[in-house]
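Before going further, learn to read the protein records used in this course. The integers have meaning only within a learned vocabulary of local backbone shapes. The record below shows the convention in full.
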Amino acid sequence: MNALVKLKTLTPAVNQIVRSYALKSDLKIKWVRPEKIPCYKPEKSGDLQALPQYAGTELMKDFRDSKELESANEHVRNLFTLEHNRRREMVENFKEDMVRRVYRHELDYGSMEAKLGLMTARIRSLQEYMEKFPRQSVVKVQLKELIDKRKRYLRYLRRWDYRRFEYILEQLDLVYKPYPTHFHWITRKDSLRKLTTIHCDQIKENRLDEYRKHLESQQLDFLEKKLKTLEFVRQEQMECRVPVTVTPEEIKAVRKQYEELKEKRAALAASLKEAEDS
């Protein structure tokens, strides 16, 4: 019976407990999980240029220098154009263009630059294909492997020949995106912790800016008061015949600072007035 009486006396005190601290939810910070971008997308692979759109009237790679087609009928010539052939022929043309951007000589197809040009052309071709057919898992695996292989080549060049590495990135329109040094999962807790820190830093900066503006608004009155105080102290010390601690140079420096600030404030007020009138 005594225990029940004690519980009855404690219940009002428990109900009166009020939380006096803030939670992260009170800051009204909303976190939205970022959209997952596949690694084969141009945003992740670093390709700044897509596969070019050819007009279709270009001849295939093996028939560009054919003298018979120069004098052939229009219908016969159309049979050897990119428009009336497989997509692979267009990709072959693009591969040749990419190799010509970085090759060392006309027959160069085995150097590091030529290999990177061929891989880049192949990657952009597969990326365009994946945009149309995103469920092709076999092509997706091939594309991922090609992107990883090109990244390994670029990492090697970046380490041993940085000038050639920069040249290839510029010619092929690429951005090198290395792997992160530390892998971590994107979680709501960590993201909210970062957002809360950013929010608190922003509040701190805003309050410091407000305090700085408040001090700047009182600076002119402070300098005027300081100038009068220094002049008074120097005059009293001279009259009382005690060692003078305030030099004329100090008074002159404060007066100069006061005059400059006063002119600056007057010019600022005049410019604001002209802006309002206009």
Notes: The chain has two domains: 42-172, 188-277. Residues 188-277 form one domain. The chain has a mean pLDDT of 85.
